[in-house]
Amino acid sequence: MHAYANPLRFLKLSEALLPWLLGLGLLLTGIGLGIGLFASPADYLQGNSVRIMYVHVPAAWLASSGYLGMALAALAARVWKHPLAELAVRAIAPVGAMFAAICLVTGSIWGRPTWGTWWVWDGRLTSMLVLFLLYLGVIALARAYEDEARGLKAAGLLAIVGTVNLPIIKFSVEWWNTLHQKASIRLSGSSIHADMLQPLLISALGFTLLFAAIVVMRMRTLIAEQRRTARLRRRVAVAA
Amino acid sequence: MDHTPFIAAAYAFTILGTGGLLAVSWIRMRRAERAIDEGRH
To answer: Is the Cβ pair B13, A109 closer than 8 Å?
Structure first.
């Protein structure tokens, strides 16, 4: 793993990977959402509104797993001082925030015809909102200081501390009485019919590849900006 | 209740959000890497 923390090796590897992540991600997302919208059956209780699941559930999974990835990168930056780990924290935060926002908005839209309300302050919805705010906090802290290293240190610390919210999101539907339904997919099996599970898994895989593609593109951007800044500094030093 | 507007709104928000972020990230990456290449010459 340490070998891949070399920025030049990362640039080479990501150049080869990026077209695959983008191409497969767009293809699988298109297929998953296409089946979800036009070919999968309506739910016997929720009717057609269940089709929102194919965008809402992948967004929820990616918002949570993206946060875990960001926290692990922050930990790696703190322990091993990996140059790429700090970049990964900065690259993941806005993408995770976007997926958390998609989860919150699509969940709210799904809630109106299903529960009769756009929002309730129950355990699952509130902990998901906290996750979104944590992402915003990490983004803000990374830019809050003139000394970039200090900002990244503070942002990394918040990312690590914020992982305490992840089990709360996961178990909120078990710990408290909530409007939100309990988990339908567990390690032991799924209670979702195969005709609905298939498009859900396809779109989840597609969105995961797109998430990874965006993070890789953002990391490449940050590396290019750092190289440009370093080059300008060298020129200024030579001129002086 | 007709669910179509709710489904359309949820899909539109997701596609615009993900697609927008993809496009912005792609453009920023290309611009940053082009600036590096131009600075080299």
So the answer is: yes
Is the CB of residue A136 less than 8 Å from the CB of residue A93? no
DSSP H or E run through A149: helix A148-161
Is the CB of residue B33 less than 8 Å away from at least one CB of chain A? yes
Q: What is the DSSP letter of A44?
A: T
3-state secondary structure of A185: strand
Contacts of B36 in chain A (CB under 8 A): 224, 227-228, 231
Interface confidence, given as ipTM, is 0.93
Q: Which residues contact A48 (CB under 8 A, 6 or more apart)?
A: A42, B3, B4, B7
pLDDT in tens, A69-83: 999 999 999 998 888
Helices (H) and strands (E) in chain A, counts: 7, 2
Place of tokens 């390690």: A187
Torsion of CA A174, A137, A129, A36, to 10 degrees: -100
Its pTM stands at 0.92
- Nearest 5°: the CA angle B2, A180, A107 is 50
> Directed axis angle between helix A53-80 and helix A7-34, to 10°?
170
**Least confident range of A36-50, A89-103, B18-32:** A36-50
Looking at residue A34, its pLDDT comes to: 96
CA-based nearest distance B10→chain A, Å: 5
Rounded Cα–Cα distance for residues A73 and A123 (Å):
27
The share of chain A scoring above pLDDT 90, in percent, equals: 68
pLDDT at A148: 84
